[in-house]
Amino acid sequence: MFQYIVRRILIAIPTLLVISFVIFTILDLAPSDPTGNLPLSIPQEVKEQIRKSLGLDQPFHIRYLKWTRQFFIDEPLALVENVTGIKFPGSEKRTRIDSWSTHSSVIDLIFQRMPQTLWVVGMAYVLGILIAIPVGVLSAYRQYSIFDQLGTFISLIGFSVPTFFTGLLAIVIFSVKLKWFPSVYDTTLVVQDWASFVKQLKQMVMPVTVLAFFNASQLSRFMRSSMLDNLTQDYARTARSKGLQERAVVLGHVLRNSLIPVVTLIALGIPGIFGGAIITEQIFRINGLGDLLIKGIQNADIPLVQTLTFIFAVLIVIFNIFADLAYGLLDPRIRYG
Predict the structure, then answer these.
(1) Which residues form the domain of 45?
(2) Cα–chain-centroid distance for residue 296?
(3) Residue-wise DSSP of 88-114
(4) Same structural domain for residues 32 and 72?
(5) Which of 3, 127, 230, 259 has the fewest CB atoms lying closer than 10 Å?
(6) How many domains in the chain?
(7) Digit-coded pLDDT (tens) for 147-204
(8) Contact at 8 Å (CB) between 285 and 186?
(9) How many Å is the Cα radius of gyration of the chain?
(10) pLDDT number for residue 34
């Protein structure tokens, strides 16, 4: 197991370097100018000085190496210094990845927005998983029953209808008509007492429900399909012939093997939590990472978009490794050499 983890990490390092180069190259070639939004009255010489201060006068490979050094070395060291208070040698010469639009550290902006995204999108993802697995198991075990047909119908609706439609529909019904929940998410709310806690729960209900409905609809279909493939396998019939109860066969044998492909989807979907739900955050005005990415694209803030995009790629590679490790826990036949 340890050798397998080390081998996967060694493979992941060049993979991430290639991904970082591709992301940096594509966004660097994009038609963006940090001085494009400045007033026309500003002289061209001043704009050139601004570009020079941002390092845009340097060659491509110099800017790429500087960005990778900042991401892999300077930013982690700055994070450790802020958390522990320990100062490393050369901290005064260290440079950080700064946003073109806000002139503040991109990593600091990400950590400011991350709690909102984790609260809403993370809770919606967990709730979707908790709903999808039992629904998929019951739908497969009771194939063509009323429960299966109803679950299939609702799942198809949840997976087919985009979240911007269900989000707006929820606002119209539960916020405008019934006035049960607020239509705008208050990111400045601080939970200090029971009243503020209830207010926090109310404003989370609609965005969490919309995202959980979409996630559960997708995962339940995969769970049902995987269960149907394993319910008729030879090992399931052998377990029944040995006298095992049907509950033990389904939950102890079939479910474990059926979770293997679903675990891959769950693990690869976790980076999406950190990426934020771009559409849903726009609808409910949640100042999360998805909203931050949209504003970075609108403002042509290349360092912000580059860093956010590469962080998503890093998370996908990491959770892909976690998914492979989870296979060994679900299926004892899998061994890591």
Answers:
(1) 19-93
(2) 17
(3) PTTGGG----B-TTT-SBHHHHHHHHH
(4) yes
(5) 3
(6) 2
(7) 888 888 888 888 788 877 888 888 888 888 888 888 777 777 777 778 878 888 888 8
(8) no
(9) 24
(10) 65
How far from 119 is each of 173, 195, 217, 240, CA to CA, in Å? Answer: 23, 18, 21, 43
- Residue 287 · residue 77 · CB < 8 Å: no
Evaluate whether residue 4 is within a structural domain.
Answer: no
Q: Alpha-carbon distance 254 to 236, whole Å? A: 7
Task: For residue 274, tell me if it sits in a domain.
Answer: yes
Q: Do 82 and 134 sit in the same domain of this protein?
A: no
Place of tokens 């490393």: 88
Closest-CA residue to 312 (of 84, 101, 121): 121
Task: For 29, list phi and psi in degrees, rounded to 5.
Answer: -80, -10
* Backbone torsions φ then ψ of 285, nearest 5 degrees: 60, 50
CATH number at 124 reads 1.10.3720.10
Residue 324 lies in a domain: yes
**Distance separating alpha carbons of residues 104 and 98, to the nearest angstrom:** 5
Taking the C-alpha atoms of residue 167 and residue 174, their distance in angstroms, rounded to an integer, is 10
Measured between alpha carbons, how far is residue 114 from residues 84, 101, 277 in Å? 20, 19, 12
Number of H helices, E strands in the chain: 16, 0
Q: Spell out a b/e string for 169-205, using b for 16 or more CB atoms within 10 Å of the CB, else e.
A: ebbeebbeeeeebbbebebeeeeeeeeeeeeeeebbe
Last residue of a domain, one of 41, 63, 93: 93
Whether residue 51 sits in one domain with residue 176: no
Say if residue 86's pLDDT is above 80. Answer: no
Q: Can you tell me the mean pLDDT for 313-336?
A: 74
Per DSSP, what are the bridge partners of residue 98?
A: 105
The pTM of this model reads: 0.76
3-state secondary structure at position 228: helix
Assess if residue 14 is contained within a domain.
no
